Amino acid sequence: MLHRSGIRKICLLFLLSLAGSLPLRAEASEPRESAEQYRQYQARFDGLERVDEIEEAGYRVLEEQVFPVTPESFGTEELTLIPAMNDTWKRLALFIADAEGQIRYKCSQLETNECAPGQMRQLTMDIASVAFADVNHDRKTDIILITRCVNPEGPYAGIPYKVGDVLFQGDGTFYRDWRISDKINRFSMNKSANYIITFVRDGRSAEFLYTASTLEELLAEGFTIIEEQCYTRDFEKLGRLRVVPGTVKISAYEIFMIYLVNENGDIIWSFQPMGDYDSLYSLRSVMGRDVDGDGLKDLVVLARYSIETEEQESRIENRCSIYYQRTGGFDIDTEFEKTYQCQEEDTMEDLIWKIREYWGWQVEA
Question: CA distances (Å), 194 to each of 22, 129, 175, 251, 278, in order?
């Protein structure tokens, strides 16, 4: 029988996935492809032996991501890593070839090709980064891959997100550990190659931010409370709770979370306002007030975050995150943010009135 805290953890991860905080999987908008189409696609891929056959098989070589590599278990010869995209099916493949154009290794079993489960057509847009490092301490160079994907429909349609993966070098081959790839993406450790290396090689994980049951567990793992933004509120359906915002530094990133904690130190609810941003730049305000007019206090978060652009430049953006209290917990807003782009000059009071106007009321709570 599951303990209450165990049930809460499972529900939390499920709700975060639904809310789009961890956009790992999505349904493609096109109809499901036939088994015969997939068989033909796989047969063409399996038959590739030379570089000059890649484009003939329906792939587009991503020239800007082609790199020289010298995998230790393949010998001393310099090889070439060649990523290629099948634009029809939005599927990525990796090839490693020698100087004569002979393909020495190929792989299409990648995390980015599994974002729409059970479907051939996937969601990959392009590659965000390719890096090389020994991440499992076997003195062989591994491949760290980050792609950009986008959902064609749903609340977050059109918003790119990252998918991370690691290919470990074996004996004349590479292999994946799906459990590691799953954790990289489930717990938002896909921001950069350095973040992935910090997790896989150094064992520094963000998982505890989503699975901890008590505030004591968070603090033991290095979570730092932003004391000036802490306060206690009566959240009608959940009781009197302390709002606890804070961060933990992993790699170069300040990972930001907010927890609702009861008087015993138990975590009752948690929020990930960062979404797909890279790092917290500054927290401006956290407010517990009723903004949708149902008599229940909601949580509104105003903060600045940093994000790396496609040109690999860091940009600071303002974001207002809204969590509406419901009978069983909180629902993340996906409607107001579509109608209003948060500005640098916005204050929390400005946003409270704008949100209330959106919901059609002007009564002070």
Answer: 19, 11, 20, 7, 12
